[in-house]
Backbone:
């Protein structure tokens, strides 16, 4: 935790936020309470660069989720698909982490970045849903060791299995968009995975965020992406690729059977109980622990 404070000290843009972090440390040292984002992720990698950002657009992705289109003002600000940003909101003392759902390429091309935030009583999420408006300013800093970033010269491309629960789709959506960008570039096309399967579970059809965009990506040639959607609290799904059920062992087995068993990487993001269950299912299908990467919700 103190290492985070020292790194922030090096940044002239964030004296206000250094005070917040120091205050959080003092509070935690004197009161027993649930660890906050900065403490939970104290051991995670973080970039030293912080950037201010302006909200350009706010959109309802569902009844409970809003997406923000942000203009990033520091041209050196970069992230990898799957990472999150420490988010510092003026007037909100709680610092949180939001995962990007856009591709790193969008940031490099247009200086834009997208976040999707589910409504809750957590102060930063509450701010997004009740006070945030076009023109609002926030400060951001990239962190996290969970990402997909194939490099030139590495082993031949792997197959990918992505498993999301609810708003856990965010970092995986960033990965899907990143793979799409890689396919559009002659220099990175050879690093693209041979096949990508997404398994996306949500309580209701309305909470299957970005479904239209996912389907568009699955229809772009080469058609190496596919998606299966799972709805746990509604019945009567009519689409061929939708199942009214939780993700079960047979579903995971069916997906892994379509992938190269000796060359597959799995990225999971969602509620902790779900991730634990999926990890067990993957291992039963012969997937090694080193090939399973996950980010749990706290």
Residues:
């Amino acid at each position: 935790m103190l290492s985070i404070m020292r790194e922030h000290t090096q940044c002239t843009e964030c004296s206000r936020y250094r005070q917040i972090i120091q205050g959080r440390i003092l509070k935690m040292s004197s009161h027993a309470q649930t660890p906050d984002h900065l403490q939970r992720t104290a051991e995670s990698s973080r970039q030293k660069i912080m950037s201010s950002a302006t909200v350009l657009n706010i959109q309802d992705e569902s009844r409970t989720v809003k997406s923000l289109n942000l203009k990033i003002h520091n041209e050196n600000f970069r992230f990898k698909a799957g990472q999150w940003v420490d988010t510092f909101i003026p007037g909100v003392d709680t610092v949180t982490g939001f995962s990007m759902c856009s591709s790193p390429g969008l940031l490099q091309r247009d200086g834009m970045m997208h976040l999707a935030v589910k409504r809750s009583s957590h102060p930063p999420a509450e701010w997004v849903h009740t006070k945030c408006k076009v023109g609002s300013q926030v400060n951001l800093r990239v962190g996290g060791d969970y990402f997909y970033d194939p490099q030139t010269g590495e082993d031949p491309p792997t197959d990918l299995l992505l498993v999301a629960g609810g708003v856990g789709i965010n970092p995986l959506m960033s990965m899907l968009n990143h793979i799409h960008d890689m396919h559009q570039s002659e220099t990175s096309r050879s690093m693209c995975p041979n096949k990508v399967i997404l398994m996306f579970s949500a309580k209701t059809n309305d909470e299957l965020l970005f479904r239209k965009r996912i389907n568009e990506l699955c229809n772009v040639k080469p058609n190496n992406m596919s998606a299966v959607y799972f709805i746990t609290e509604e019945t009567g799904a009519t689409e061929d690729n939708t199942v009214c059920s939780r993700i079960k062992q047979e579903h995971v087995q069916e997906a892994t059977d379509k992938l190269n068993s000796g060359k597959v990487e799995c990225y999971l993001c969602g509620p902790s109980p779900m991730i634990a269950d999926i990890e067990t299912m993957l291992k039963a299908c012969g997937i090694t622990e080193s090939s399973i990467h996950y980010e749990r919700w706290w």
Q: What stands out?
A: Residues 247 and 261 are 20 Å apart (CA to CA). The two ends are 18 Å apart (CA to CA). Residues 1-14, 24-32 have pLDDT under 50 and may be disordered. The first helix runs from residue 2 to 9.
